[in-house]
Structure formats: C-alpha cells, structure tokens
Amino acid sequence: MSNKQGIQEVSTSTVVKDATVGIVVSRWNSMITEAMLEGAISTLVANGVKKDSITIVRCPGSYEIPLTAQWLLETKRYEGVIALGVVIRGGTPHFDYVCDAVNQGVLDLNLRFSTPVAFGVLTTDDVQQALDRVGDKGNKGSEAALALLKMITVRRSLNELS
Asked: Domain 21-161 is of which CATH architecture?
C-alpha cells in the first residue's frame, strides 16, 4: 500500500478476518488473569476474530507461560498467541527471577517461531496495581489483543509484498 507521498507503507490495522489465535493464561492470581482474558477475547471478537478461532490454554503460573505458548506455536495452527499473567512483587527475589524468565521466554518465542506472541504479563508491586490494570481505566488483556492484531496485519501485509 502506498501513502500520500507514494511510499509503500505496511498496514497495522486491528481488524483481522479469519485469524486463529491462541491465548495462554496463568491460573495464578486468577481474579486478575480472568479479567485480562475477558478483555482479550472481547477485543479479538470486536475486531473480526471468530470465537471458534480462539483457543484458550491455562497454565499453572506465569513462569509456565513460555513453554505453554511454545506448545501452541508448535502446532502451527495459530497466527499469533497472547500471553496473559500477573506477577506481584513479594519480599523475596522470586519476583525478579519469574519476571525475567517470562519476558525472555516470550521474546525468544517471537524470534524463534517468527510468529507474534503478545506480552500481556503484568509485573506489579501489589495487588491493587494489578487490579487497576484490568479495571475501568483499561484492560491489559485487551491491549495485548490489540497489539497481536496489529502484528498479524503487519505480517499479512508483508506477505502480500512478496
């Protein structure tokens, strides 16, 4: 597609038809992750993804998200995956280890599979901060879904240029 200056510009629309999406959601802190999941699903459906094209896989905690997402990607059925979890800081270094592992794991999956994995893992100091990110002011699950849809359209647009 060309813009007003005649330069080719790739689309980053959020309206995606016929997309297949996997969602990995952590069971730990489910009060928060389930609200993120609801936000992600409603955003996907509102932007053209059919409910029967969405697969949800629950894993025990955020640490297990990268492996679970990898299993989804290995099926080659999904144009993208959304990773949803929450890690709340405690009094030990456990928070840092889990956050680093999940972040690096999701990054590695994006690059290794060349398939977008949207990062919807909250890392907060307390429960209230996490609740604030799934409340009236916005839903991080929804934001992760929008990011994934944009990445899917970028990939589709680049494939059309080939």
From this structure: 3-Layer(aba) Sandwich (3.40)
